[in-house]
Automatic annotation (TrEMBL):
Residues 84-202 are annotated as: Disordered. Residues 51-85 form the SAP domain. One of its GO terms (biological process) is positive regulation of transcription by RNA polymerase II. Residues 103-129, 147-185 have a biased composition (Acidic residues). Keywords: Activator, Isopeptide bond, Methylation, Nucleus, Phosphoprotein, Repressor, Ribonucleoprotein, Transcription, Transcription regulation, Ubl conjugation. This is SAP domain-containing protein. Signal peptide: none annotated. Residues 186-196 have a biased composition (Basic and acidic residues). PANTHER family: HETEROGENEOUS NUCLEAR RIBONUCLEOPROTEIN U, HETEROGENEOUS NUCLEAR RIBONUCLEOPROTEIN U FAMILY MEMBER. The lineage of its organism: Eukaryota, Metazoa, Chordata, Craniata, Vertebrata. Residues 222-418 form the B30.2/SPRY domain. SMART domains: SAP, SPRY.
């Protein structure tokens, strides 16, 4: 029978060829061969394991074979397995020293026994010579056993030399592998520590303070909403001035801060819309006038439709509670830039067309038999455009009203020291009319706190 890790030595089992010396040395020889074989096998397995080249699953398998924990990161598994291999190597070296000391003691005991046996054999040989009955078989057996003993000693020495040579070869192979690895990684210039850290999660204590501050901020801070726009303080505006009324106009009609100029929104699809508004005060008696200058014809290049007119401006008068669409209902009177007039959705030719940089004068006369509305272009009188029955107005006030389509305009209600064109005799600018004779239009909230926001869906 043979056992794993041991060498089976076949010997002659004939009783006549066995002697005391052979029975003593042969078991020691077999045991020493088993030890050296097991030691070489262990060292060969240890030399074959390169912890740095093992994958995670292989590391775990090696740890399980040694009844060690296979939990943790790859770096921890590598460190744990390397420690186990180092411990096994130290254990093998210690057992070798112990075995050698045991072998030395066994050798001394065997030599003493051999000396006693030789003395006994000498006495037996002398007795046999005297009796003339020398046993040649015994002599041959002794000679054969002595040769076996010498062969055993030589085999032990040769086994030690082979182990040392194998160790030296393993060390040389390892040094060669290291040199090859260093040569292969020379271009990458990566150290062994960097190799170990590659793909390995950094330990908690290795992180700096900034890392933990970042984690805390990500964990506990919510997504920040954009800051609301800074609220503008409520302007203290003189309500006695005649100007454009931001409360009585379209939302997409941009009124300037001084409230004497305005324009319609032209961005994106706003360019398709008309926008307009009324003045803050109206009149119902006297002879009153104001001026409007077309300051800019706003380009709308993003609208590429052909045969569609995208620039229009209407100027005239309307009731305070009327529609902001000038000229589309009763008591809404408009002069169009195409040289036409419109009221109650009825359009007729009138005067001349006007365009950018033209100044239109607007006049209303309540002192005639009927209320007369007339216009002028750059100081030129265009005549009466509308006559309105006083009975139909029933004393209602008419307010200056403008409606733009991709135009910007500027007004002179009398706030300018010098008008755009000389004032027509007998007419008064609205700002010069006494406050008690003017009619204030609908007033909006005085402060933003008084406003109410309505959302329509």
């Amino acid at each position: 029978m043979s056992t794993p890790g041991a060498i089976t030595v076949w010997t002659d089992t004939e009783p006549s060829r066995l002697c005391a010396n052979a029975e003593t040395k042969r078991p020691l020889f077999i045991e020493s061969l088993q030890y050296f074989f097991n030691r070489n096998h262990l060292l060969a397995n240890m030399s074959e394991i390169n912890v740095k080249k093992l994958k995670v699953n292989e590391l775990k398998d090696e740890l399980k074979k040694r009844d060690l924990s296979d939990k943790g990161l790859k770096a921890e598994l590598m460190e744990r397995l390397q420690a186990a291999l180092d411990a096994e190597a130290q254990g093998a070296d210690g057992s070798e020293v112990t075995k050698e000391s045991q072998d030395d003691g066994n050798d001394e005991t065997a030599e003493q026994e051999d000396m006693g046996e030789e003395e006994a054999e000498g006495e037996s040989m002398e007795a046999e010579d005297q009796n003339g009955n020398g046993d040649e078989a015994a002599v041959e057996g002794n000679g054969h056993d002595d040769e076996m003993g010498e062969e055993d000693g030589d085999a032990g020495v040769e086994a030690d030399k082979e182990v040392e040579e194998e160790d030296e070869e393993n060390e040389d192979d390892e040094s060669i592998d290291k040199i090859d690895d260093e040569d292969g990684d020379a271009d990458k210039v990566i150290s062994a520590d960097q190799k170990n850290k590659k793909g390995v999660k950094r330990r908690r204590e290795e992180h700096g303070r900034g890392y933990f501050e970042f984690i805390e901020e990500c964990k506990y801070s919510r997504s920040k909403s954009p800051l609301p726009p800074l609220e503008e303080e409520d302007d203290e505006f003189d309500d006695t001035l005649v100007c454009l009324d931001p409360y009585n106009c379209d939302l997409h009609f941009k009124v300037s801060r001084d409230r004497y100029s305005a324009s319609s929104l032209t961005m994106e699809t706003f360019a398709y819309l008309w926008a307009g508004g009324r003045a803050s005060y109206g009149v119902n008696k006297g002879k009153v006038c104001f001026e409007m200058k077309v300051t800019e014809k706003i380009p709308v290049k993003h609208l590429n439709y052909k045969n569609i007119h995208f620039h229009d401006v209407n100027i005239g008068w309307s009731l305070a509670d009327g529609s902001l669409s000038l000229g589309e209902e009763e008591h809404s009177y408009s002069y169009l830039d195409q040289g036409m007039k419109s009221s109650n959705a009825v359009t007729e030719e009138y005067g001349e067309s006007f365009d950018e940089n033209d100044v239109i004068g607007c006049f209303i006369n309540f002192e005639a038999d009927d209320v007369e509305i007339s216009y002028s272009k750059n100081g030129k009188d265009l005549g009466v455009a509308f006559k309105v029955s006083k009975e139909s107005l029933a004393g209602k006030a008419l307010f200056p009203h403008v409606m733009c389509h991709n135009y910007s305009v500027e007004f002179n209600f009398g706030q300018n020291e010098t008008p755009f064109f000389p004032k027509v005799e007998g007419f008064t600018f609205m700002q010069d009319i006494p406050l008690d004779e003017r009619i204030r239009g609908p007033k909006g909230p005085e402060t933003k706190k008084d406003c109410e926001v309505l959302c329509c869906f």
